[in-house]
Specification:
The chain is mainly α. The chain has a single domain (8-133), classed as Arc Repressor Mutant, subunit A, CATH 1.10.10. Helix content is 67%, strand content 7%. The chain contains 6 helices and 3 strands. It has helices at residues 8-38, 45-54, 65-72, 76-88, 110-131, 137-169; strands at residues 63-64, 92-96, 104-108. A 3-stranded antiparallel β-sheet has the order 1-3-2. The longest helix is centred in the C-terminal third of the chain and has 33 residues, at 137-169.
């Protein structure tokens, strides 16, 4: 793209707008098409993410609701309803954490593990193959690198916004 009559800042903002709009579209399409890929197992992309998080070796003994929310980068409130539905469906269970009775520990049930490993994962891998068609290993590696950079910067913004919100709640000002 050549913009001979625009300054760098203007071009950068125009490209940024396009980039973030495309990310928004990708997120929406991931939710729509990803859910379709696993709907016959009674899963959504959000439930797929929870089962994926709980299937990691680091989560073998379960995860606290707070840790799971931080890992998935969702609010505890959004996660709460999701956990309730998944418990109702027998995919996960939650119980008081033996180390901290105020905290709840979420674990995958045997039924959830069966759905994850045997029923959903083959469909998820097929979905990945379809969506990443035409991407080389190098393409995927570079995309992952840039998404991680973007995520890191977004986390910095989130932390700063959280600090500003706390300051405002406490009646502090920057003046």
């Amino acid at each position: 793209m050549d913009y001979p009559n625009k300054n760098n800042a203007s071009v950068r903002m125009e490209l940024a707008n396009r980039l973030f709009f495309r990310l928004y579209q990708c997120a929406n399409m991931l939710h729509k098409t990803g859910t379709r890929a696993v709907e016959s197992e009674g899963l959504t992309t959000q439930q797929w993410a929870v089962l994926g998080a709980l299937s990691r070796p680091e989560a073998e003994g379960g995860m606290s609701v707070g840790d799971l929310a931080r890992y998935l980068m969702v609010s505890r409130q959004n996660l709460s309803g999701l956990i309730s539905r998944m418990e109702r469906d027998g995919r996960i269970s939650s119980a008081p954490d033996g180390r901290d009775r105020r905290s709840r520990l979420v674990t995958m049930t045997e039924s959830g593990r069966q759905v994850w490993l045997v029923e959903a994962q083959p469909k998820i891998y097929s979905y990945y193959d379809q969506v990443l068609e035409g991407f080389s290993v190098n393409d995927v590696t570079h995309t992952l690198h840039y998404l991680l950079k973007l995520l890191e910067n977004m986390q910095k913004v989130d932390n700063a916004q959280g600090e500003n919100a706390e300051s405002e709640e406490n009646g502090e000002s920057e003046a």
